[in-house]
Amino acid sequence: MAGKTGDPVAARRTLAEILAGRQAYAVPGAYDGLSARCAEEAGFPLIHATGAGISCSYGYPDLGLITMTEMVDRVRQICRTVSVPVVADADTGYGNAINVHRTVQEFEAIGAAAIHIEDQISPKKCGQLAGKEVEPVSEAVSKIRAAVAARKDPSFAIIARTDARESGGLTEVIERSRAYAAAGADCVFPMALESEDELIEFAKAVPGPKMITATSGGKTPDIGLERFGELGFVFVLYAMSPILAASHALLSLMRDLKQNGSDSGHASKMLRFGELYGIVGLEAYQEWDQRFAG
Q: Are 88 and 77 in contact (CB under 8 A)?
């Protein structure tokens, strides 16, 4: 069907079932409608709306330069393009507990199935960068409580991310994650753990569903989906993998086109027009056009 394909209520219930089931899922990062459609076309049962990827797609590094309005607009585009649940990056919640209350309402209204909120001070940085600082745990807990209170649909999941590994070590990551779970977070997200031993220790200390990012080149090792699942990591994010791959392909094409004045050298690496239009639903729109044509 042309237009929005998803049912937000059904998507949130699906996500709640996934969290309860505790099976590990590889989750690709989408940064716009096309990347989201490609993920759904490939058969992924849920998608991550990546903050770093969206920031880069706007042409900015992930340094807190993207506003809530810009992020909500892009996540809305992603949600209305797919039928699977979308887990959205809501950065720091864009302020204090009062701001978080509105943030939850905005993301829930556009059809997201979940958001994750991190405990960095503003302006935040990409979780893979050095120099991150975290806010007092009491302030972060108040924001999680506000997020839980703000949601209208109890199936809308609140995921609490901590970036305390760099400044406070694994001990603080564990303490903060426990506090956020106690405040009502449905899932915890330790950012940038640096070894399998740290993953194991964290998993032993923090029960319940967990999320992790495992994009190649990041700080956290990719120990395999089965092993992540054994440790209770339900969502294994490959948040930046799609935009890294797409950017590599784009840069390669642009350089070749500039040097040779033709794209013929890349023909075998590009989709055909029909393949691309198939992904974005041309046939459905044509059917609607014929059905309602005067």
A: no
